[in-house]
Design a protein that fits this description.
Number of helices of chain B: 4
Order of helices and strands of chain B: HEEEEEEEEEEEEEHEEEEEHHE
CATH class of the largest domain in chain A: Mainly Beta
Number of strands of chain A: 43
Structural class of chain B: mainly beta
Helix content of chain B: 10-25%
Oligomer: heterodimer
Strand content of chain B: over 45%
Radius of gyration of chain A: 28 Å
Structural class of chain A: mainly beta
Helix content of chain A: under 10%
Distance between the termini of chain A: 36 Å
């Protein structure tokens, strides 16, 4: 037994990552175009791209039994994850709102469930994820720091099959198959929490106990999330296809308290709901082997709502009141994308097209009030919205030129026009990349990309809350801008080894930091006043080493980076960004010795996030009003420099085991046992500095709250 | 709801783990801490103290001796007088457009300097008030009109001071002392048209920024409450506010031992409209947000509360200009 444990420990501790990286590929392959694989054609000059196959996500580490796209991306070099367990994605010094999330080509504003524990991307239906950290192709725009382009899978045109899974928190069901064999297929995936099957009876039991004890109070609470992905694909011919995509996701949280006695009743309730609804129609046509067109109209709506409800019934006083108030954030986007890929000869691959979007941002409040007293009634209905409208249009052009077998150049240009609130802006975004094939296995690449972002997330706190509003650039708030230079060496070595060494420098301008009073819901009517403009810069290097065989996949990623901010109204010099993690190391391994089981592990280490600590004490007096004199002399804490303290280092080991079994009917059953934070390192999420009487000095204390999290899940493929 | 919140918080705290660490703060020097607001008052008080690095022992010396201290107005030195242990003061030199430079150095502590330019004063053209009743609430609607277009990039603030007459009789060591005074205290806070306890009302209140302002730096003095207004929010030179109407009052306290106190407030008010310099706004906002500095422990709030415009030291040297107008309540009919 002891030897077995030692062997297991050696295998798993030597290299450990939270997910299977077997399908991550770089882009050394030559370009190719086809209707089905149009999104996945490789651009030889592309830098900073990670491609993840959907099956790899499904086999990866499953936090609470659910594999997750964002958690997988957080492990990559150049990406900081921010607060533990949240779906933060801070790419090469950018902020969480700087990422363009696309689901089948449609932008999404909020991509998390359960305040970030899970993302909105259901791994059961994800076909492919293209993650760009730099070197952005000209067809992408609108965000500064990254592009997460998620494509869902079309249904199987030949046979019906599906997948059912049950994790710690949610259950999943996916079903696909032909409608017309060989021509029309469907793919539907549903995911929903099942926690309320436990929480509802527990709360009911608690209320029953209160009543038995003579307590009139009654509590209620619930949380659930769910999402539905649906895809319908039809092939008119081998060269023409139309695909209808639909997504709807929703989170619903509520809590309440009511009291009922002989005099009347009183009820209070609060709730939050948020979610996306997306729809798009892709029409792809291969006019010839050289020319492909794709047109996509789409519509998306993001809505979040905070509601407060109160009802009071006082029988003795003949008084009744009900109040229902809501704070709404609604973002509606309608758009049209048209893109073409043209290969006139073997030396040029030209991509060009246009996009247009209309944005409707509508934050607002509503109130419904009813009062009845002594036969008199009063009703009031108030609705107020602060609408902002804006439009974005862009044309792009990109030519991948093969000069020789060794030299390639990619010249791109995106011309973006944005209009909102009486202001029109026209911004050019050049995109340039070059590649030198040094040998059969080694290439050098470099790129430059300029990006602009016209949408700003309004939040006074560094939490990605679903109720955060988005606002467009205005006459006073300029579009955010980034320039990123990237250079790297890419090598495919024998025996399944791949090495990438990449460096970048990114500068950001027209960044906005919240500058107003600390409040959960910053005022939207005067939001421009509460933001101050500044700049940012980040630079560093990433090293990745990947090894793949049929049974073993392992990877090591290391990042050395700096990320800084300058906001003159906050601090007169450059200061460290809160996610300025100087070093990051990720080790992963996935081993499948046979058909029955596979092991995987992941170890992540990075230097701590940054917070603001007081640096000095100010000596001052306080007035003692009882004694009417300055009786106390105090040392008050003085904050003088932003983000001046680095929390202790973060490190974590995740382990997982998949056990596969084939049923008598030939279906595959998988049991997954995972341990998040396997050695229970309580990584700090907060810190404070207080006077210690015993030591007679100020002592800094860090607090960690996330322990080991085991999970067990079951899935069935049929 | 409360029970669930308590259970949730207890679960979180019980599962927390804490350990000490070295934050490696890189501040090793004592510095000067200076605070001063130049206002329309004849006297500008400059509060001066010193700091010690956090990681120094608490028993570090607290005394300091100012070696150099100067204030220059448009380049010309201004006469400084010492008020008490903590404060110096100078008179005048507060006209709009005046550039004031402060320099202070104490023995063994690095020099600190700061600059402020007194902003142009706003001008109130008129103030009109009317008594309205909204949903059984008695409110005052106040309309303030400016004489000039506001600067859209500037920050303004309103403060309302109630005229209060005081009289007292106090028994002291040397016998009974009688006194009287007239004061103006900030005594009026804006309200919303909807129920203030409602979510909409709470949101409206949350959207207002109110600074606590005490330019004398004497904690015995009441702080004025400044309601902040963005220059861009003032449309058509008009500021409209709603306030809960309070009936006039007269109070008498007699403790029966010779000590008594009488105060009376009627409908007489003084309204002041301030224009804040950029550093005044930033520093007052920083002090306001410092109340939430515990959230910085979690890295949750932006670092705006670290603001200071004092080079080589900490604190603020800022200026506010103002205009004022008397106002009389309109009685309900």
């Amino acid at each position: 037994m002891r030897k077995l444990l030692i062997l297991a420990g050696l295998l798993l501790c030597a290299a450990a990552l939270a997910q299977n990286v077997g399908e991550m590929r770089d882009t050394l392959q030559a370009s190719r175009v086809s209707t089905d694989a149009q999104k996945r054609e490789d651009v030889a000059t592309q830098t900073s791209l990670t491609r993840i196959d959907g099956s790899a996500i499904g086999r990866g580490f499953a936090f609470l039994g659910s594999p997750d796209v964002i958690k997988m991306l957080q492990q990559l070099p150049g990406v900081a994850s921010g607060t533990e367990l949240m779906s933060g994605l801070y790419v090469r010094g950018g902020d969480g709102s700087d990422n363009l999330f696309l689901l089948d080509g449609v932008p999404m504003y909020q991509v998390s469930h359960l305040i970030g524990l899970f993302s909105s991307f259901n791994s059961d239906i994800v076909d492919n994820v293209d993650f760009y950290k730099g070197g952005f192709p000209a067809r992408y725009g609108g965000r500064m720091s990254s592009v997460v382009d998620v494509t869902t899978r079309e249904g199987d045109c030949e046979a019906v099959h599906g997948h059912f899974g049950l994790g710690n928190i949610d259950g999943r069901l996916q079903l696909e198959g032909p409608i017309v064999r060989g021509k029309t297929s469907f793919n539907v995936s549903l995911r929903r929490t099942w926690m309320e099957t436990l929480t509802v009876p527990l709360i009911a039991y608690a209320n029953h106990t209160y009543r038995k004890n003579g307590d009139d109070e009654h509590v209620s609470g619930h949380y659930l999330f769910g999402d539905l992905n649906a895809k319908l694909a039809h092939r008119f011919s081998p060269r023409s296809k139309v695909v209808l995509n639909f997504y709807r996701g929703r989170d619903n949280f509520g809590a309440g308290n009511s009291t009922v006695d002989k005099d009347g009743s009183e009820t209070l309730g609060i709730g939050m709901i948020w979610g996306n609804t997306l729809g798009s129609l892709d029409w792809t046509v291969d006019f010839s082997d050289a020319l492909t067109m794709k047109i996509t109209p789409y519509y998306s709506r993001y809505k979040s709502q905070v509601r407060a409800q109160m009802e009071e019934d006082e029988r003795d006083d003949d008084f009744y009141m009900s109040l229902d108030e809501r704070i709404n954030t609604v973002i509606r986007d309608g758009g049209l994308n048209a893109s073409f890929v043209w290969n006139p000869d073997g030396t040029h691959t030209v991509r060009f097209g246009a996009t247009g979007q209309y944005h409707d941002y509508s934050p607002g409040t509503s109130e419904r009030l009813k009062i009845a007293q002594e036969g008199q009634k009063y009703e009031n209905k108030d609705d107020s919205t602060v609408p902002y409208h804006g439009g974005e249009a862009a044309v792009f052009f990109e030519d991948e030129i093969r000069f020789t077998d060794r030299w390639r150049l990619n010249l791109g240009l995106r011309d973006a026009v944005f209009f909102s609130v009486g202001k029109t802006r026209n911004l050019l975004e050049p995109r340039v990349a070059a590649k030198f094939q040094a040998s059969e296995r080694v290439s050098l690449r470099a790129s430059y990309a300029a990006m602009n972002q016209f949408a700003h997330q309004i939040s006074s706190l560094y939490i990605d809350l679903p109720i955060n509003a988005w606002m467009p650039s205005t006459a006073l708030i300029k579009p955010m801008h980034s320039d990123q230079y990237t250079m790297g060496v890419y090598a495919q070595l024998p025996a399944g080894l791949e090495i990438t060494v990449e460096g970048w420098y990114k500068r950001m301008s027209h960044l906005y930091e919240y500058y107003g009073p600390v409040t959960l819901l910053p005022p939207l009517t005067s939001w421009e006043r509460d933001y101050t403009e500044g700049r940012g810069r980040s630079y560093g290097g990433e090293f990745s080493l990947e090894y793949r065989t049929e049974k073993l996949q392992a990877a090591a990623y290391y990042t050395l980076s700096w990320s800084q901010r300058y906001f003159g109204k906050i601090f007169p010099e450059w200061y460290a960004d809160r996610n300025d993690n100087r070093h990051k190391l990720t080790l992963t391994a996935s081993w499948r010795p046979g058909k029955k089981f596979e092991l995987y592990g992941g170890w992540t280490w990075h230097t701590g996030n940054r917070i603001t600590f007081p640096t000095s004490l100010e000596y001052h007096s306080e007035w003692n009003s009882f004694q009417e004199k300055e009786a106390l002399y105090l040392w008050g804490k003085l904050y003088s420099q932003p983000n001046n303290v680095k929390l202790p280092d973060y490190h974590r080991l995740d382990l997982g085991l998949n056990f596969h079994r084939t049923t008598r009917r030939g279906n595959e059953v998988t049991w997954n046992l995972s341990f998040y934070n396997a050695y229970c390192r309580m990584n700090p999420v907060a810190a404070s500095v207080e006077w210690n009487e015993k030591k007679q000095e100020y002592v800094a204390t860090a607090y960690g709250v996330i322990p080991i999290v085991p999970s067990l899940s079951y899935s069935l493929k049929f | 709801m409360r029970r669930m919140a308590v259970i949730g918080a207890a679960a979180l705290l019980l599962s927390a783990c804490e350990y000490t660490f070295d934050p490696k703060l890189d501040v090793n020097e004592d510095r000067m801490y200076v605070q001063a607001y130049v206002t329309d008052a004849d006297t500008t008080f400059v509060r001066v103290s010193r700091t010690v690095p956090l990681e120094a022992a608490k028993t570090a010396g607290t005394d300091y001796r100012v070696e150099e201290f100067s204030v220059r107005a448009d380049g010309a030195e201004v006469a400084l007088e010492r008020k008490d242990d903590w404060r110096w003061y100078f008179l005048g030199h507060n006209a709009p457009g005046t550039t004031l430079d402060l320099y202070v150095k104490a023995a063994g502590i690095g020099a600190a300097s700061a600059r402020t330019v007194v902003p142009a004063a706003p001008k109130i053209a008129s103030l009109r008030s009317e008594h309205i009743t909204v949903k059984d609430r008695e409110l005052q609607k106040i309309t303030l009109t400016l004489a000039e277009d506001p600067d859209p990039d500037a920050c303004y603030a309103l403060a309302y001071f109630l005229k209060e007459e005081l009289a007292w009789s106090a028994v002291g060591e040397e016998g009974t002392e009688d006194g009287s005074a007239i004061t103006h205290v900030t005594s009026l806070y804006p309200t919303s048209l909807t129920e203030p306890e409602s979510l909409t009302g709470l949101l409206e209140e949350a959207s207002r920024t109110v600074f606590s302002f005490r330019p004398t730096w004497d904690y015995r003095d009441d702080a004025a409450q400044l309601l902040v207004l963005d220059g861009r929010e003032i449309k058509d030179r008009t500021i409209e506010q709603y306030y809960t109407w309070y009936a006039p009052f007269e109070r008498t306290y007699d403790w029966g031992d010779g000590n008594s106190y009488w105060s009376k407030g009627d409908y007489a008010w003084k309204v002041k409209l301030y224009r804040l310099s950029g550093e005044a706004y930033s520093y007052l906002m920083a002090r306001k947000n410092e109340d939430y500095s515990e959230l910085a422990m979690f890295g949750l709030i932006p670092p705006g509360f670290t603001y200071s415009n004092v080079t080589g030291g900490y604190g603020v040297f800022a200026s506010l200009s103002s205009d004022e107008t008397p106002w009389q309540d309109v009685l309900p009919e």
